[in-house]
Amino acid sequence: MLFRSLAIASALSLASASSEEPRQASANDGLVRVKLTKRSDHEIVAQHLKRENDALRLAMSQGEDVAEMAKKAAGSALLRGSQFDEQASEARAREEDVSLGEGEGKVENVVIKDYANAQYYGTVHIGTPPQPFTVIFDTGSSNLWVPKINCKNCGYWFIHGGKKKYDEGKSSSFQKDGSDFQIQYGSGSVHGFFSVDKITLADDIEVTGQKFAEVQDAGGLGVGYVMGQFDGILGLGFEGLALGGATTVFKNAIDQGKVAQQMFAFDLGDNNDGELTFGGYDDSKFTGAITWTPLSEPKYWQIDLENIQLGSYSTGKTNGIVDSGTSLITGPSMEIMKIAASVGAMPNLMGQYTIDCAKVPNLPDLDFQINGKSWPVKGKDLVIQSGGTCLFAMMGMDIPSGPAWILGDVFMRHYYTIFDYGGKRVGFANPV
Questions:
Q1: Does pTM top 0.85 for this prediction?
Q2: Are 268 and 118 in contact (CB under 8 A)?
C-alpha cells in the first residue's frame, strides 16, 4: 500500500534528540481526534487464505507448478497487487456472472498499493449535509477518493453491508470539476473523475473547496477492496504525489487555518483500536522524549535508516517510508527472501510468507537504527496469527526509483508516530 505530495518550504536543522517544544495535551489542547478501528487478525488471515485458495485453484486449473510459482511470486513483487488477485477475481466473476468493467482513459501515475492487508480505518464526511465514509488514512498517498453511486466493482451488499457511495445530487456544497482520475494498480486500474466539495474530519475540521475523486470503477483493487471494510482512501502524503494537481486535505486544512499546528500523529495501540490526531500531538499517549528525524525525500514521508538487523542479517545504510496505509513491513524482495529463509518462513502464491506457529516464540527481534537510536519490533510481533495460521508480517516489494523499505503498521504499532508537515520530519516516541 504508497504515494505523494509537495512539502512546505522550511529548512530546519534537526538532530536526534529530545524535543524542547511545548507539550501538547490539555483539556483544551486544540487537537482534533479521529478514532481508528482496527481490523481483527482473524479477518486478515481469513481473507489471505481465501485469496490464496482462489489463486491455488486458478494455478492448478492452468496446470502450473504451484511451488515454483510461489517462489516467483515472492521474488518478483514489483507492485503491491497480485496478478492472481486479478485473474481469480475474473474467474469468480465469470462463475457468478458479475461484470468487472474495463478501465478507460489516460493513466496519470502508477500507484503501488492494493490495500488487501489494510488494518486501520476511520471516518470522514463529504458534502452538505455530510455523507459518511470509512477510509484508510494513508501517509503513503495524497489523493482523497471514494466510490460514487452506481460504481462498478465497488463491493456487494452481502459483504460488510456494501460500500457507502457518494451522491453529488444530495450535497448543496458540491461543485463540478469533471477532470479524469485514474490510478494504475498492480492488478488493474481504478478510475473516475474529480469533483469539489466540503470535507469534514471528526466533527471539528471543515475543509471547503476540496478536490477529490469520485470512483466509477474500482476493479483494479481486486478482491482486497471488495472484501475490505473501507470505502475509500484519504491520502496524507505530499502534493508531489497527488494526481490531477489536487491539493491534499491536510494542506488545505493548514491553508484555511483549521489546524493549530502543521502536524498529525498516529497512536495505533497494540492490537487495539487507534487514534489519529490532527493539529499537533498528544503527550498523554507517549512517555519520554520525541526523537525527530528529517525527511530524506519530502515527496514521501521518507527517512534515512542507518541499519536494519534481524539475527545475522543486516542491511547497512538504506532508506524507508513511514506508511500508515501499509500493514506489513516491506523491503526489496531478495532481501525479504533472505530474512524469511533465515527464520523458516515459506513463500506462497500471494507473494507473502507463512511460518510455522511453533517457531513464533523464538523469532528474533527486527531492529531499525534511526537517527542514532534503536527502534526494535519484537519477533513475536512479526506475525499475524489466527487459529493455526501464522502470516509473516514482512513482504517483498521492489519499487523502481522509490524507497527501499516501507515501515507499515507493524512498525507504527510499536511507537507513537508524529508527522510534521511544516518541519519536513517524523518523530517517534515510546507509547504509554
A1: no
A2: no
Residue 138 and residue 234 in contact, taking contact as beta carbons nearer than 8 Å:
yes
Phi then psi dihedrals of residue 124, to 5 deg: -130, 150
Grid look-up 500471494 returns: 350
Give strand ranges (E) for 218-285. 232-235, 263-267, 274-278
Given a cut of 70, is residue 421 above it in pLDDT? Answer: yes
* Cβ 6 vs Cβ 239: under 8 Å: yes
Give the N- to C-terminal CA distance of the chain in Å, as an integer. 28
Cell 494513508, located at residue: 138
3-class DSSP state for residue 246?
coil
DSSP secondary structure code for residue 234 in this structure: E
Catalytic, 323? Answer yes
Paired strand residues for 308:
368
Nearest-angstrom CA–CA distance, 329 and 322: 10
Please give the grid coordinates belonging to residue 283: 503527550
Q: Write out the three cell numbers for 39.
A: 481490523
Q: 273 an active-site residue?
A: no
Q: Name the active-site residue from 29, 54, 85, 138.
A: 138
Report CA-CA distances (Å) from 394 to 181, 366, 384, 389.
31, 10, 10, 15
Instruction: Give the three-class secondary structure for 381.
Output: helix
The tens digit of pLDDT for each residue in 230-282 reads 999 999 999 998 999 999 999 999 999 999 999 999 998 776 788 999 999 99
So what's the pLDDT on residue 301? 96
Q: Report whether 192 contacts 214 (CB < 8 A).
A: yes
**Marked catalytic residue, from 114, 323, 409, 420:** 323
Give pLDDT tens digits for 345-390: 998 877 789 999 999 999 999 999 999 999 999 999 999 888 888 9
CA 322 to CA 368: how far, in whole Å?
12
Q: Calculate the alpha carbon distances from 272 to 115, 119, 135, 275, 413 in Å.
A: 19, 11, 18, 10, 9
Could you give phi then psi for residue 59, rounded to 5 degrees?
-60, -40
Q: By the 8 A CB rule, do 211 and 251 touch? A: no
Alpha carbon distances (Å) from 256 to 237, 252, 419: 18, 6, 19
Q: Measured between alpha carbons, how far is 249 from 212 in angstroms, rounded to an integer?
A: 9
DSSP string, 279-347: SS--GGGEEEEEEEEE-SBTTTTEEEESEEEETTEE--SEEEEE-TT--SEEE-HHHHHHHHHHHT-EE
